[in-house]
Amino acid sequence: MAFVVIREAKEGDCGNILRLIRELAEYEKLSDQVKISEEALRADGFGETPFYHCLVAEILSAPGEPQGPCVVGYGLYYFSYSTWNGRNIYLEDIYVKPEYRGQGIGSKIIKKVAEVALDKGCSQLRLAVLDWNKRAMDLYKALGAQDLTEAEGWHCFRFEGEAMRELAGK
To answer: What positions carry a catalytic annotation?
Structure first.
């Protein structure tokens, strides 16, 4: 019988992380938006000053089973700052391969990110979810998250590409 371990990603995991990022984008019906490369993941996550941190969910085979370790999920996060509350952690992505869902792996990843947040003195763990992903919203609420769209009316915005260049005057 196999069991799951949640561990910090290593540089050698970048290929698996990229594969899972692409699967997540496909699940979210946003495949065309993935522009990141394995090389960029390596440089941005494992350089001198990482832009992100990542946990992977790895299935370990029981002794005697032919299959070796297999990465089946990930949680990619980074630190941010709230002018009202100080240190925060933002969970950019949480993903578990469909055939491994319903086994508590996603909850284990989120709980590990919460542990990291508390160890680093963060007061909040933030994340976003698409409005149609009820299963994920139900999980987050069951784990104690508050829906800020419902509770406080927050909407997320972003600047990118030409709009960002125009804004910066470049």
So the answer is: 140
